[in-house]
């Protein structure tokens, strides 16, 4: 075993301290030292270069290299540049950014100060989903503490680069995690995604050049600058994915939670070393959604087939899907996506048709309704799955369940439709027999998902 | 009757306008401010907000109806959101909902007869590592058991109506791992 848990703790270094959210505690443990050093001894270009070298793949799910994204900025004279921090964390199964807001908001504020300096922004908006009121209050309090010290304000650390930070609350809409929907929501509109191009780096918030980064990505910046880009990149286990990152593990594991580890650990390590293995060890592991509900499901008993030495997965030929490092490009080659690195673990008691229905209910509820293929398609999918789980479907409905998502992908303004279709098709591809069996039986499935955990809720050994 | 903010909230509203380069950007925070005072977004609130930001009431209504957390009808003193998305369901989300239905005598979408609680179903609330969970007003209640849920509801039912400000950090993070 490789002891992924022994890796350096950077993002979570202060989580265990009492009152870690306060400036007094965070600063005693090193907060704002890096921002001071960066602003007083480095140029914006140098910071941008280090971030590029750090190989930080965006932590929000798409995995776009943060340094490259920053490079797209090219403001015209007189244009203001904005930094927008995406704290909308709403992808089912994902619960990592929240811990940063609540346990170490000063790391976020420090990251914002450095990032604003690096990209030439004087104003940052932190968009936090409306439900995370506690996180909003903690981030707001941290900003005020930093403002009182002068770290946020007209001259941070005596440097003539004013920085102001505004927390903006969402109000319940998954789609606002999509960056252009987020910008509309920030501007006081319905959270409907915009047609791209123009991309936000050209025309973003208030029609100004804007960088939208995930909240963890920005919180990663101080630790990266502290070590230098190359050293930070080297913390990752796989070339191309640098640093440490937050992993989440939930569902049928013994120790669900958020853990920090190098980029590129495997799902098996996440489940066994961090998650403590299955909640009920007498059960078999059946399936894992690796990085939020939009990432196609993986099976421990499916093996990589890459005999060609040039195949990106050749090093993992004949290994289980769970033993491929969790890295942006390797996961793409595997037919899934890395997403948010927050895995949902399911043991053998889970019926995958019902699990699919649960997730497709989510997408039907959250489609913004702007594009017809998505608005209608998500409804059709849910109707079909309701028929199948009710035992009233035929083979024809099963065919439609493949045909509908295939007509959604690529036909809409944003990636929501793809994010619905891919995991659905992934479920059908990975568990075709279960879908066929549900249709063949022609009876209501009548299953529930808490067979393994019900005794916990009923009070026989639940966590405090 | 026309809606008006309390003097203190009126000050907060004025401060909101200064935070953004465009007036309209204050729409969501202003709606939040009004809902925190009024309990829900009534037509009077919409008229008030539209007037304040120089928008048409239809534009404001269009925004209100887009977001699930803006209530378009009166709700109980406390609103319970029970998360039913997969990660919670694997840990007993359905059992939580059933328990709440039994205890409160309502189904999602309804308010108890005494006006204390409104029960609603939520999609993923970013609390998967501490499932099952509910959100009650501004607070998350995590790692629920039937007993714990009953205790929480007893306390809330005996306490004052909704008070502003959330009180608890995420559980099940690194420090416990």
Task: Please provide a brief summary of the model.
Chain A has 464 residues and is an alpha/beta fold.
Can you lay out the helices and strands and say which pair or pack?
The complex is a heterodimer of chains A (464) and B (177).
Chain A: H1 23-28, H2 33-41, H3 44-53, H4 66-71, E1 82-87, H5 97-103, H6 105-119, E2 123-128, H7 133-149, E3 164-169, H8 179-186, E4 210-214, H9 215-227, H10 229-235, E5 244-251, E6 257-262, H11 267-274, E7 285-289, H12 328-333, E8 342-347, H13 352-366, H14 372-389, H15 395-408, H16 416-430, H17 432-441, H18 454-457
Parallel strand pairs in A: 1-2, 1-4, 2-3, 5-8
Antiparallel strand pairs in A: 5-6, 7-8
Helix pairs in contact in A: 2-6, 3-6, 3-10, 5-6, 5-7, 6-7, 6-9, 9-10, 13-14, 13-16, 14-15, 15-16, 16-17
Chain B: H1 7-19, H2 27-38, H3 43-53, H4 57-64, E1 78-83, H5 86-89, H6 93-104, E2 117-122, E3 134-136, E4 139-141, H7 146-158
Parallel strand pairs in B: 1-2
Antiparallel strand pairs in B: 1-3, 3-4
Structure characterization notes:
The complex is a heterodimer of chains A (464) and B (177). By secondary structure, chain A is of the alpha/beta class. Chain A has 18 helices and 8 strands. In chain A, helix 7 (133-149) links the parallel strand 2 (123-128) and strand 3 (164-169). In chain A, helix 6 crosses helix 9. The longest helix of chain A is centred in the C-terminal third of the chain and has 18 residues, at 372-389. The N and C termini of chain B lie far apart (54 Å). Chain B contains 7 helices and 4 strands. In chain B, strand 3 (134-136) and strand 4 (139-141) form a beta hairpin. The longest helix of chain B is centred in the first third of the chain and has 13 residues, at 7-19. By secondary structure, chain B is an alpha+beta fold. Classes of the chains: A alpha/beta (464), B alpha+beta (177). At the A-B interface, helix 5, helix 7, strand 3, strand 5 and strand 6 of A face helix 2, helix 5, helix 6 and helix 7 of B.
